[in-house]
Structures are given as C-alpha cells and as structure tokens.
Amino acid sequence: MNFWEYVAGRHQQLLTDAYQHAGAVFQCMVVATVLGVLIAVATYRSEWAGNLATTTTATVLTVPALALIGLLIPVVGLGVPPTVIALTLYGLLPVVRNAIVGLRGVDPALVDAATGIGMSRPARLLRIELPLAWPPILTGIRVATQMLMGIAAIAAYASGPGLGNVIFRGLASLGSANALNQVLAGTLGTIVLALLFDAGYVLIGRLTIPGGIRA
Amino acid sequence: MPETGGHGASIELESLTKRYPGVAQPAVDNVSMEIKAGEVVVLVGPSGCGKSTLLKMINRLIEPTGGRIRMGGEDVTDIDPVGLRRKIGYAIQSAGLFPHMTVAQNIALVPRMIGWPKSRIGARTEELLDLVGLDPGEFHGRYPRQLSGGQQQRVGVARALAADPPVLLMDEPFGAVDPITRDHLQDELIRLQHELHKTIVFVTHDFDEAIKIGDRIAVLRERSHIAQFDTPEAILANPADDFVSGFVGAGAALKRLNLTRVRDVEITDYPTVMIDDPLQQIVNRLRAGGTNEVLLLDRHGRPCKWLRRGDLMRARGSLARAGTPVHDTVTRDATLRDALEAVLTDNTGRVAVTGRNGEYTGVVDMETLLNSVHGMLEADRLDALENQHELEELRAAQTHVEQEGDRGVTGVGGFGGTR
User: Fold this and answer.
1) 3-state DSSP call for residue B16?
2) From B110, which residue of chain A is nearest by alpha-carbon distance?
3) pTM score
4) Contact B113 A123 (CB under 8 A)
5) Do A114 and B98 touch (CB under 8 A)?
6) Per-residue pLDDT for B419 more than 50?
7) In Å, how far are A25, A52, A57, A156 from A91, measured between CA atoms?
8) b/e map A190-212, b = 16+ CB within 10 Å
9) Residue A93: is its pLDDT beyond 60?
10) Which of B56, B110, B144 sits opposite A212 (nearest CB)?
C-alpha cells in the first residue's frame, strides 16, 4: 500500500485527528494569549517584574516537552488535562515577551499625550497602548502557534488528542506495512495545519491592525 | 471647575514647587504666577530650566509637591486630574497624534470621553478641521503618517481645541517643523486666538517665537525661577538682568520692530498725480509744490512711479519712460520691520502704504520710522521699569518667606499682594 492509498483509506480517522489537533492548539493559544497579555499588562511598567515574567516563561520553554507531559501525568492524569496545561505553558513565552516589548515600545510622548488629554489609565491601555502593541503581540501569537503545532503531537504520549496518535502508532510498529505511512501522514498533517494557521494569522493581521500602523 | 465653552479662564499658580525624591534641588522652586483669562503667556528659558515641568504641573501630568493651582478662581490642586485634563487642551511637540487612529478619530477623542452625542462630534470635527485650515473632506479619514509635519501639528491643535476648553497648554508645539512651516503655524495660532480668546500657556526655547505670539513672556532661569515676566515690548526694551538680555540676544531694537504695525505709526500724506492727468498739470504740480518729487498713481489709484523734477524733461516728456518705478509697498498691517526693509531698499528713502486693494493711502519715511521707534522704546522702558519694580518687591517677599520658613507666614508669599 503506498502513501496515497493509505491516506485515501484512512482519511476519516486522519481528518478527526487533524481536527482535534487544530482544536487543541487553537484553544490553548486563546488561553495563552489572554494569560500572556494579562501577565504583560501587569508587569511591563516595572523593570524587574517584566524581566521576571520573561525569564520564568523562558525557563518553562527549556523543559523538554516529553518530560513536562510525563511529569504532569501523575498530577493531573492522562488525556486532555496534561495536553492543555503543557500547550498553554509553552505558548505563553512568545506572547508574554512580545507583549512586554510591544507595550514598552509605545512612544512615551503618545502616552503623555493620552494622559494629557484626560484619558484614564484603563482607557489609555485599551485605546492607545494595546492597539499600538498589537502587531508585535500578534507576531508572538503566530510564533507560539507554530511551536505548539509540533509540541501538540507529543501530547499523544499522554493519550492526548491529535495527529500525534498516528505518529506514535507508526513509531510503535516500525517495520510493519503501514508504519512509515502513519508517521508520514501525521507529520505532513501537522505541517499543513501549521501553514493553514499561518495563513489565518496573516488574514487576522489584515483585519485587525489599523491602516495607520500597518507595515 | 471652569465650565467648558466660550472664553478663557484665569490661572493662578501659588508657590508651586516640584521636588523629586533623592534630588537635593527642587526641579521647580516656589513659582508664583498670575495668568489672566484670555491671555497668551509664553514660558521661555534654556533647556532644563523646568519650563515643561511647570507647564505639566498645570494639568497635573506632574503632581506638584507644594503650592496651589487655581483655575477660573477655583482651586484645582486636589481635584480628580482626569476630569481636570478634559477641560484643558494639551498640544505637544510633533503633535502626539495616535498613529492607529484617523485624523477624525484623534480629534473626536475628548468629546467622546465626555459623552457628546455622535452627531455633535461629527459636526465639531468638521468645524475644527476647517478652523485649522485643513479641508475636512480630504483629511477626515487620513492617518497621521499620511500628513506632513505641519498638517499633523494643525490636527494636534484641533484635537486640543476639540471640547472647547477654556485653557490651552502648548509644550513646544512647533519645535519639530521647518522654519517656514513654523512661521505659518505661528501666524495661524495668532489668528485663531483672535477668534477664540482662550487662555494659552505656551512653552518654547525660541525667544523670537515668544515675542511673536506672547501677550506676556515669562523668562525662566534654572528651577523655573522667574527672571522677568512682562510684555514682549518691555522685555526687549529693558531686560531685567544679564541673564534675560543674554536670552533676548542681539538686535533687541530690530526685534521690537516686529511688534509694531505700520498702522500704529504716523502715515504722512504725499503729493500725488494720476497717470491720466494732463502732462502740463503734472509739470505744474512738480513746480508749484514745496516738494521736488511726486508719486504717480495708476488708474486704480495704486502707486506706480516716483517722479522727480527733471525726470520728465530727461524722458522728453514721455510719462511712460520718466521716473523710478515703485518696487515695494507695504500694507497697514505690515510690521515696522517690513517697512524698514522697504525704506532701506527704496532709493527715495520712503515707502508707499497701500490699502486693501493696493490703493495708495500714504507714505512712511525714514524719519517717521526713527521717531516712532524712539518713542516706543522710551515708553517700553518706563513700563518695564515699573513692572520690574513690582517683580522685585514680589521676590523680596518670597525671599522673606523662604528665610522665615513658610509656616505661618504663607500669606506674605501669596501672589497678588503686590499687584
């Protein structure tokens, strides 16, 4: 059975896995974005708090994905919980770092002007600082998503959802007829998903970044 | 709290002080100043003298550590700063427009925050764009980066004026544009102020800008100590000390010429003839009058040529060839500096003054200019001496307060006691 015959025969299963893979990454990315921006907003104005947030999230990223998921299993069990926790933690770093850099990069004269014309602090954050920091934040989200696509495949180790299951099944039965096809299908599926997400972000960028600051 | 709308409100600063923790010297030290409603006061001083700090304390972008601020008679030192700032227009260097908002959105910010209805905001935006000389249809939807520096600055002023605040604070607003545009924007601001009568506090380090737009100028030295607070005329005529005269720079008398218009000096009449007059009549006029020169006017009454005795003879009686053409004329609104320029370049030593349609109304000559400038400088000097005296009394009172410690005797340091 060649690769295309394999895909044609199993497309139902593969599509379900791909759908779950994308769903897990997407939902974790939403959580990571909200958390990441909140952390950045809470810390960007203090030199040490901002640095602490960046360093902590960077440290999380240095833990191997397989080890982190393995460590989470005894605490939260198998399946979805370790997957969601791991993906969210890994997604934080690029978002937090880019949001802090973006918020700190807003021209102080503009912040001064916003305060000077009578904007309250929340209004200034929502109407001036976050919109101006949005392009770098979006870049952070984009980078994080690419990363999570790969990491999500490992989540199958903890019986998580997604294309990782196909890959692991293939790796476990190396030498058998369909082993290579399974690994190939899982890997290519992950890449295709990543490219689709990236295209989606380009579109989101066009739609949400105001013309005045679009590069 | 002054109500929004209409004319300016007075501002009183009383012993205003700003100390930063860990710094021995205060950044702004015990400054008292009274700004009348509808007046343009320019704070001018070298870099780092604290003039911007002083300005930002008025809308409490920088919270004072001591002293009081009163606006329209009401103490605003402790009220909610956000509400206060919505009633004070604020324009800064390079405009400070928000790049992610269109021109209209930038202008509409303050009216939106104070809850104007949409229709009123829309109408106001168009009105303001018109007021600052930008075509609403063309500029409404543009982003700041699609505007030139001068246009951005106009939008910045429009945004500051949006909710019709009684007070306008301007922090070196024209510092980042080229000299020609700056000149233009200054003229526009003067024109606007003629219509609006806001109370404007304007910070600059450019003394020429200060004399051009200020009703009064406060020259500040380090820690915002007021070296002199007076009209531009008085400061030019009689700088309080070496610091002020250093700041005024060379050519004070020439700068003074910029402050007076031709209409303020004596415009003398001069013998004229019309281009359509018979030749004989012109010749008679030249012979008869005590003068040996007449001004030839064209059919519309506009100055055309200076005719001297003998010119006609040399040109063999042809009016077209005789005499010296008039190179330059000035209007009644021109500054004396323009008039002097014209008098110096014209070889007759005088310049014709024209009305709205370029028609002749009189002449100004060197002698008139000299006499009026001397008169003006003398009057300025007397005024300045008087004001200087008052400032010294005030300073003496302040020094007294400082030496005695300001507990218990603050009343002495209060401004206005010497007024």
Assistant:
1) strand
2) A117
3) 0.74
4) yes
5) yes
6) no
7) 9, 17, 9, 18
8) beebbeebeeebeeebeeebbeb
9) yes
10) B144
Which pLDDT value is given to residue A195? 93
Using CA atoms of B103, B109, B110, B112 in order, give the dihedral in degrees to the nearest 10: 130
Query: What's the gap in Å between the CA of A128 and the closest CA on chain B?
Result: 7
Separation of alpha carbons A123 and B108, rounded Å: 14
* One-letter amino acid for residue A27 of the chain: Q
Rounded to whole angstroms, the Cα distance separating B48 from A170 reads: 71
Output phi, psi for B70, to 5 deg: -120, 140
Chain B residue with Cα closest to A134: B100
β-pairing verdict for B199-204 and B40-44: parallel
- pLDDT confidence band for A200 (50 / 70 / 90): very high
The answer, for B115 touching chain A at a CB cutoff of 8 Å, is no
Q: A120: which chain B residues are within 8 Å (Cβ-Cβ)?
A: 82
Q: pLDDT tens digits, residue range A34-44?
A: 999 999 999 99
- Measured CA to CA in angstroms, residue A58 lies from A43, B193, B306 at distances of 15, 56, 86
Across A64-90, average pLDDT? 86
Enumerate helices (H) and strands (E) in chain B, giving the number of each. 16, 17
Instruction: Name the nearest CA neighbour of A104 among A125, A133, A131.
Output: A133
Q: Is the pLDDT of residue B215 over 50?
A: yes
CA A116 to chain centre: 37
DSSP B223: G
Nearest CA-CA distance, residue A114 and chain B, Å: 9
Nearest CA in chain B to A110: B96
- Complex ipTM, two decimals? 0.82
